[in-house]
Write a structure and sequence with these properties.
GO molecular function: DNA binding
Oligomer: single chain
Structural class: mainly alpha
InterPro entries: Transposase_Tc1-like
Helix content: 40-55%
Protein name: Transposable element Tcb1 transposase
Pfam family, one: HTH_Tnp_Tc3_2
Organism: Trichonephila clavipes (Golden silk orbweaver)
Order of helices and strands: HHHH
């Protein structure tokens, strides 16, 4: 080993599982499709590169890029009565003017 080389330098953590190109692909997938999950991205990366990447690693890479996890929007299905009452409430207030 030569002096000054970094190839065998001691590390306090294991090497990253993804390359910088894969990191860019992870960010691109998230930005283009917000509904994609970290598990889906991990499966895609695994199918392309033939090495496994955990969903936690995907979330970590997104966080390092300034993107944070979002919970999917979820709404309980409204029953017909709820829909009717909500529509009635909106219709009553439709013509309100800011005073």
């Amino acid at each position: 080993m030569q002096e000054g080389t970094t190839d065998r330098r001691g590390r306090s953590h294991p090497p990253q599982r993804t390359t910088s190109r894969e990191d860019r692909q992870i960010v691109h997938m998230e930005v283009t499709d917000h509904s994609v999950t970290s598990r889906t991205i991990a499966q895609h990366i695994e199918s392309v590169t033939n090495h496994s990447v955990s969903a936690r690693t995907i979330r970590r890479r997104l966080q390092q890029s300034g993107l944070f996890a979002r919970r999917p929007l979820f709404g309980l299905p409204l029953r017909q009565n709820h829909k009717r009452l909500r529509r009635q409430w909106c219709d009553e207030r439709r013509m309100w003017a800011a005073e």
